[in-house]
Design brief:
The protein is an alpha+beta fold. Among the domains are: 10-52, no CATH class; 184-327, 3-Layer(aba) Sandwich (Protein Transport Mog1p, Chain A). Helix content is 39%, strand content 17%. The chain has 7 helices and 8 strands; from the N terminus they run H-H-H-H-H-E-H-E-E-E-E-E-E-E-H. An 8-stranded antiparallel sheet has the order 1-2-3-4-8-7-6-5, with helices on both faces. Helix 1 (10-16) packs across helix 3 and helix 2 (22-34) crosses helix 3. The radius of gyration is 62 Å and the shape is elongated.
């Protein structure tokens, strides 16, 4: 258990100024030997006092300074007495001149007052007839038969007439907005990314292409689907689902190739004329292919009768185009 050690502060200041009693001085000095904190404060105060004494050391006064100051004061007193006597003597010598000046000024005032008082006072200006107020005519002098003038009836001007209310115009019916075509390549690319992200699960997992076609038929896909075996091109079927591509009902099926390459195929009722501009056109076996690049993916579209087919992948563009050539059927 540690005891609380008392630290000195005022006693240290008294020690620095040499104002402690001998007993107190011994007690504080013994404490400084064992207390690092108080010893540091004592050293700091001692250093500050030594520095202050050097900066503000008392300088000795020159011996003749007091004698010179007293001599200067005596000289100033003698000058002041001489100036005061000169002013009084000057006043005494100039006093008769001032008296004569005052008497002359008083005489001039008396003469001017005599001539001013002799002039007759002028008559007060009379008021002209134009300035006199006219006397009001009493009411008895008015002709009782005369009728007072009535205020004229104000005439209505065209500006004061209320404007004729205009009938409300019929609101025009809004014109029918033209609906823009969906960006099918971008939607197909988004479906590919969502599948790889696990957001579009397969409804049937199978490697059998016939089983896949039967599944689409049983699920109500209203057109014939063509799911081919692409084993010769090192792609095997994983399965598929009935999907919705914008407003189209799509047969959606997936292949896996070397290095886990994914190939997504879709078939939906539509025309390639719905596709936007910007495609690169390729032709093979009399079939026109529309090639797009969207966000690092390659997409190929072609027409098979009333059905539009699309394949999508992130493999080399030319490799995907060759897969599309192999899968396409001229209907």
């Amino acid at each position: 258990m540690t005891t609380h050690r008392r630290h000195f502060k005022e006693e240290i200041e008294e020690l620095v100024d040499n104002r402690l009693t001998p007993a107190a001085r011994v007690e504080v000095e013994n404490h400084l030997e064992s207390c690092e904190r108080c010893r540091g404060e004592f050293e700091a105060l001692s250093w500050a006092k030594r520095l202050s004494s050097k900066e503000h050391a008392v300088k000795s006064v020159p011996a003749k300074l007091e004698e010179n100051i007293l001599a200067a004061l005596d000289t100033e007193d003698r000058r002041s007495a001489r100036d005061a006597g000169f002013t009084w003597n000057r006043w005494l010598t100039q006093k008769p001149i001032l008296a004569y000046t005052l008497l002359l000024f008083a005489a001039l005032i008396l003469v001017l007052s005599y001539f001013i008082l002799r002039k007759p006072l002028g008559r007060a200006p009379e008021l002209s007839s134009r300035e006199l107020p006219t006397k009001p005519t009493p009411p008895s002098t008015l002709n009782r038969n005369t009728k007072p003038d009535l205020p004229a009836k104000p005439e209505l001007s065209a500006k004061t007439l209320p404007a004729k209310p205009t009938p409300p115009t019929k609101a025009k019916l809004p014109t029918k907005l033209k609906t823009s075509r969906p960006d099918l390549p971008r939607e197909v690319a988004r479906d590919y990314q969502n599948y790889k992200a696990g957001k579009i699960p397969l409804m049937l997992e199978t490697e059998n292409v016939k089983e896949m076609e039967k599944f689409f038929s049983e699920e109500g896909v209203p057109y014939r689907t063509r799911v081919f075996d692409l084993g010769m091109m090192s792609y095997r079927l994983l399965g598929g689902r009935v999907h919705k591509l914008t407003t189209h009902k799509s047969a959606f099926f997936v292949y896996r190739g070397k290095g886990d390459a994914i190939l997504v195929c879709q078939m939906y009722p539509g025309k390639v004329t719905e596709l936007p501009a910007g495609a690169v056109l390729r032709e093979n076996k009399g079939i026109q292919f529309y090639i797009y690049r969207v966000e690092g993916l390659t997409l190929a579209f072609w027409q098979e009768g009333a059905i539009t087919c699309a394949v999508t992948s992130d493999i080399e563009p030319e490799q995907l185009i060759q897969l599309a050539f192999a899968k396409a059927v001229n209907v």
